[in-house]
Each structure stands twice: as C-alpha cells, then as structure tokens.
Design brief:
The complex is a heterodimer of chains A (251) and B (305).
Chain A (H helix, E strand, L loop, with lengths): L3 H17 L1 H22 L10 H4 L1 H26 L1 H6 L5 H24 L11 H28 L3 H21 L8 H9 L1 H13 L9 H25 L3
Chain B lengths: L4 E10 L2 E11 L4 E5 L6 H8 L7 E6 L2 E2 L4 H7 E4 L11 H11 L4 H14 L15 H13 L5 E5 L7 H16 L3 E6 L2 H4 L4 E6 L2 E6 L1 H6 L4 E7 L2 H12 L2 E5 L2 E6 L2 H11 L4 E7 L3 H9 L6
Parallel strand pairs in B: 3-8, 3-9, 6-7, 7-8
Antiparallel strand pairs in B: 1-2, 1-4, 4-5, 9-10, 11-13, 11-14, 12-13
Helix pairs in contact in B: 3-4, 3-5
The chains are: A mainly alpha (251), B alpha/beta (305).
Chain lengths: 251, 305
C-alpha cells in the first residue's frame, strides 16, 4: 500500500484536531511572542550583541521557539493517542509503519510552520527588511527545522508511557537544544566548550539559516547552504530512527 | 475450504509468567468463534497475537493462510479489529472517524464516503454522524467501533470483549449485529466472559491459565456429562456437602457458597434430598449444565475465581 493516503490522512487529522482546540492555538501563538517581547524588551540594550538590541537579536530564535513549542504539543498528542486508544487501531491497520511516522511528523511540521511563518512578517517592527528571497529562504529552513523537531519529538514520545515522562525529555533534550542554538547568545561570544556544544547541536544550523535569511546585516555563523544541509541531514536521520523504532516494535 | 484461523502450540510468556501455555485450535471460515475465560485466562493475549499486535514466544498462528509474525501486513489486510477500549477519536465526528480509518486501509474518495455513510446508516448512527464521538453513548460508540472494524470489508472480524460496559439492550443489539455479519459470510472471533454470549457461538474455546480446557459446540459441551446440575442454598453449606456426599456419593462441591451436585435425573433427586435433610435446604434449583458448569467440571473452580 502507498505511504501517501494514510500519511496525508494522519497529518490532516493533526491539523483538524489542533484548530478544534482554541486554547492550543492561542497558547502556541501567544506564548513565544510574549516571551520574545518580555525578554527582548527587558534585556533591551543591556545586551551588547552585534545589533545592540536584544529584541532584534532574539527575533530569529523566537521563530524556532514557536516550532519547538508546537512540535512538543504534537508529540504529546502521540502519547494521548496511545492512551485514548486511537493509536491501537492505526497500529492494527495495514498502513506501512513509515506512513504512520510520516503522517504524525508531517502533521507536527505543518502545525509548526503555519504558526512560525506569520511571525516572520513582524520583522519590520525590529527594523528588519522583508524581502521575498529572505522570506522564501526562511520558510524553507523553518519547514526543514520543524520536520527535524517533530521527528525528535516523535522518537521520544513513541516510547513515553505518560505525558509526565515526556516532560522530563522535553526539559532535558528539547528545551536545551533551543537554548544553546544561538537563540539567546551568539556562537562567536560563547566560551570554547559551549562553542563546541553549539556546533554539535543541529538546531544551531537551523537557527543560523533563519538568521542569515532574515538579517543580512547580522547573519548566522554558518553559510545558508551548509546550515540547510546539516539540518536537512539531521531531519532525515531523526525520521529514519522513528521509522525503525515503530517498525521494529510490536506492542 | 481452508481454515480462517489456525493456531498451533502457541505460547506467550511475559517474563516468568506464562500467559499462553500451548494453545492449538482452528476457526473455520464463516464461523462465529468465542474465546471464553475468566480474566487473566489468556484470551486477551491470544487476541492480541491474532491481531498481529503481539508476537508469540513459541508456536505459530495464521489468519487466512498468512502467518501473524512474518506476514503481519497481509494478516492486517484480512482482519478487522474491534478493541475493548474505544479507539474512536473523541474530537472527531463519527463520519470523520470512519474516513480516517478508511485511509489507513488505503481507501479514499467517493467509494470511502459511500461505504462510511452506508455503515453509519446500517448501524443507526447516520443521523448523528456529524457529532463528535465523545457525545455518543457507550452503545452508539461501540457501534461506530464495529463500523470502523468492518469498513474495509475484512474476511475475519476480531472483537475483544465487545459487550464489556454495555447495558442489556445494547448487548442485545450487538448480538444482532454480529449475527448479521456472520450471515454475510464474515468469520467472527471474539473474546468474552459472558456465558450467554459464548453460548451463541458456533464453537467456543474455554481458556484458563493459558490453556484450552474445553473446545467445541456450546450445546455439545453442555450435554457432555449427561447430568443435571442441582444447586442448594443451605445455612451450613460445608456440613450439607459432607452429608450429601456420604449419603449419595457422586460429585458434590461447595461453589460460591452453594452446594453443587451433579446427577442424572435431577428432578427425581430433589425430593430425596429435601426429605433426607429436613430444615437444612433453603432453596434448590435444577438446571441443564451451562458453559459455566463445563468450566467448573474441567477446572474444579468457579468461573469468577
């Protein structure tokens, strides 16, 4: 059987369910913007980065934070699907296991994208130019980064028995990945060991690419091509790891 | 015609615990087959293995000729599975639940919509097809579950405790639905701990401690002993049991607080019994053996124990 029909259907279900829960929509949109405004305005000019203004510096990182939050929410939905029983009928169906992973991950990717992309349009409020090329490049990076985060989230959520257990993963793996991606401080100014941690973090490349696309005057530490290649490869590896996990296990 | 389901020397262990300790049977095509047993008897483990959700430790099982382990994808195409715990998405409508289910089986477009609407109509849920599944009563939701299970026209339908949590009316409806499916030629296999439900099957396997203790047509199993079952309520069941055994011999036990006697020509025995132990007998029932009695005779225990 083809991957497409079951995967597209599962992805669509994620979107349908999301927009039916208004609280989730508001939470996912408002939280990062609030965070950005508070942190950015608070640190404001105390931050001695290249742009001199933290609100401006943290703008690209906020887009990846939106991705992170939505991907966490959609990963949690896997645990809920298992608990509420929906997942058992999916597992008992002949749908290829890779289609099950693809559907869930694509759903999370789309959710992250449709929330992070509109935020880019706020760029002029911090004096960033809004060009078609920049937007397109940023959109592509956001989509690939969302796919990566959704796959990582899936990988851990599939094994989690409870939402509480997944919270631990979230705090130990997913949040730090964002914290040391260059969202709050640049790679250039970090101590050397932290520099290496940042270089080993796939999200650093995703964020670097968004920064380069949106902030020509203060680009990320890596070139656009390299960044996209790294985050793309990591997304593929994470997805394959999920497919192997689901295909190998029969619980 | 080959068998719909074939199970050979099937074992499943969970660590030290043997959930299935060597089970063999077959289900013929078009048959309604019941897996009866107390909780923990192994029927849900067996169900999960047949539904390809759990690999066996040893032995093998096949459905429509496909091995549940090495040909799981083929088995999944042949079977419809109805779970004990609901699998409907509460935030989707009944119709949407069916449409998403169909997509998992590669169905799409107008044929899928038509089939979904047809099933909702057949199960009397069509007028509420647009409501979220969480708004439906337990009985209606179970019907949507069954509609999900047969949406793709499976050759074999497997149901795990389909009547659990349903009231008497909904259970009767369920029985009608299953009878209808059987008439259409679908092989139906279900687990249950309700005796009266197992009694409607063509054949039943009684599972206890991971083994089949009885297998056959319900009426044949019940008639096997050729005896009646007499149950006596007494103020001192143990004392009465000993006295009856001493005076009349035969199989006399205390089960669930009643003295239980198996004898042929039970109606003739009752007057003797009452006259022999004046004042000790509070109530007497005489009945043909049920599947519960078959279980008692084979295991020496009451079904609920």
């Amino acid at each position: 059987m083809s991957l497409l029909v079951p995967a597209a259907s599962l992805a669509k279900r994620e979107l349908v369910r999301f927009f039916r829960q208004r609280g989730r929509v508001i939470g996912a949109l408002v939280t990062p913007v609030m965070f950005w405004l508070f942190m950015g305005s608070g640190l404001g000019r105390s931050f001695g980065g290249p742009g001199g203004d933290f609100l401006r510096y943290a703008f690209p990182g906020t887009t990846t934070m939106i991705l992170l939050f939505t991907c966490i929410f959609s990963s949690i939905s896997i645990i809920e699907d298992r608990r509420e029983g929906f997942l058992q009928s999916v597992i008992a169906s002949p749908a290829p296991r890779a289609a099950i992973v693809l559907g869930k991950v694509l759903g999370g990717t789309l959710l992250g994208f449709v929330q992070a992309f509109p935020f880019l349009l706020l760029a002029p409020t911090v004096g960033l130019p809004l060009t078609a090329t920049g937007l397109l490049q940023a959109a592509a990076v956001l989509a690939v980064s969302a796919f990566f985060l959704a796959s990582v989230g899936f990988f851990f959520a599939w094994r989690s028995e409870s939402v509480a257990g997944f919270h631990a993963i979230m705090n130990v793996v997913l949040m730090p990945m964002w914290l040391v991606s260059g969202a709050l401080f640049p790679l250039a100014g970090a101590r050397s060991w932290m520099g290496w941690v940042m270089r080993a973090n796939p999200m650093t490349y995703g964020l670097s690419a968004v920064r380069t696309a949106m902030m020509p005057d203060d680009p990320g530490p890596f070139g656009l091509g390299l960044s996209l290649a790294v985050i793309g490869a990591c997304a593929l590896v994470a997805f394959l790891a999920c497919a192997a996990t689901v295909g190998g296990e029969r619980t | 015609m080959s068998d719909a389901i074939e199970v050979r020397a099937l074992e499943r262990e969970f660590g030290e615990r043997k959930a299935l300790a060597g089970v063999s049977f077959e289900v013929r095509q078009g048959e309604a087959f019941g897996l009866l047993g107390p909780n923990g008897g192994g029927k849900t483990t067996l169900f999960r293995i047949l539904a390809t959700l759990l690999p066996p430790t040893r032995g093998r099982a096949s459905v429509m000729g496909f091995d549940v382990g090495s040909q799981a994808a083929d088995v999944r195409r042949q079977i419809g599975v109805v779970f004990q715990s609901t699998s409907t998405d509460r935030k989707l409508t009944s119709l949407e639940n069916l449409l998403y289910q169909g997509a998992m089986y590669g169905m799409s477009g107008e044929p899928l919509r038509k089939r979904a609407a047809e099933l909702l109509a057949r199960f009397g849920v069509l007028d509420r097809a647009g409501e979220y599944a969480e708004k439906l009563s337990g009985g209606l939701r179970r019907r949507v579950e069954i509609a999900k299970g047969i949406l793709h026209g499976p050759r074999v339908l497997m149901l795990d405790e389909p009547s659990a949590g349903l009231d008497v009316g909904a259970r009767r409806e369920l029985r009608d639905v299953l009878a209808g499916l059987k008439k259409d030629g679908t092989t139906v296999l279900f687990t249950t701990h309700f005796m009266e439900e197992a009694a409607m099957c063509d054949r039943v396997a009684i599972l206890d401690h991971g083994k089949i203790v009885a297998l056959g047509k319900p009426e044949a199993l019940c008639a096997e002993s050729g005896q009646d079952v007499i149950k006596v309520r007494a103020s001192d069941p143990e004392g009465l049991r000993a006295a009856v055994a001493a005076k009349f011999g035969g199989s006399v036990t205390v089960l669930d607080g009643d003295v239980r006697i198996e004898r042929s020509r039970g109606h003739e025995f009752v007057p003797q019994l009452v006259e022999s132990f004046p004042g000790q007998v509070e109530a007497v029932t005489v009945a043909k053996p049920t599947l519960e009695d078959v279980f008692v005779r084979r295991t020496g225990r009451a079904f609920g124990e």
